[in-house]
Amino acid sequence: MKRVAVLLAFTMIFASGALASEITKFHPGTGRHNVLPGERDVCWSEPPDLEGLIGSSEQILMYGLETEIANDFYAGYDTDISVARFWGGYIGNSYPCESGMEYRGNNLRFYEDAGCIPARLPNQPPQYAEYLCLPCDEVVIICQGGYYPECEYHASVSVPVYAGYRYWFGAQMYDHPFPPQWGRLASAGVVDCDSVFWAPYFGYAEWTPCIDVFGLAFDASQEFECGTTATTTTSWGAVKRLYR
Fold first, then answer.
1. What pairs with residue 161 in β-bridges?
2. Rounded to whole angstroms, how far apart are CA atoms 83 and 154?
3. Residue 25 carries which DSSP code?
4. Domain chopping of the chain, boundaries
């Protein structure tokens, strides 16, 4: 497969329609973490925007293609992240949303900071924490044009974070067939550092700010629950975590 065949892995998709989100944005630097009574303790939240903006973060290893988008976050207090939640969508899907999608799972990676970029590359362990969920929980939120599903994902993790430190989170679709392609949905704005992109296939062997790749600064959507249990069960394939 020539590189032109996977051009969408290197672009952004503006989907029509709105992606509804009832989650209130919260960033720990602005005040006390928000506790949702009787439900969950959200310690960081950047929900998806309303435009359906998608940036590639995936593995299609049969063609040697690997991309990843990572977004930074802070801990407002010492705690353990127990649930990682993120949003993504499919690009170039050849099946209707309600059938035919072959979802295999996600690589979830937590990185320490090295000055507004993650401290490690995806292929250079150890990361701060790494999970492979086969699969994470995938819930279709909206289907654009019958063929472009946008989804919410969540999985149980156990990652200690500490007040005043910057961390990074990468969510990458685990090795899957082509088509379709997969990417992370953007949030409504940029908080602190711009999200970063990595893709040796396209000549980005180091972490690169998304504005220098796509011509647009954005943050990938993500949310973390702390000190609570997962809202649904998740099966795990392999776990590597707590390298420090």
1. 79
2. 7
3. P
4. 3-240
pTM to 2 decimals? 0.82
Burial of 68-107, coded b for 16+ CB within 10 Å and e otherwise, reads bbbbbbbbbeebebbbbbbbbbbbbbeeebeeebebebbb
The tokens describing 76, both together, are 């407002």
List the structure tokens of 29: 């630097």
Take residue 224 and report the two structure tokens written for it.
Answer: 């973390």
Query: CA-CA distance, 184 to 17, in Å (whole number)?
Result: 17
Q: What is the pLDDT of residues 126-143, one digit of tens each?
A: 789 999 988 788 888 888
At residue 84's C-alpha, the angle toward residues 82 and 90, to 5°, is 160
Please state, rounded to an integer, the average pLDDT across all residues of the chain. Answer: 77
Answer whether 52's CB lies under 8 Å from 186's CB. Answer: no
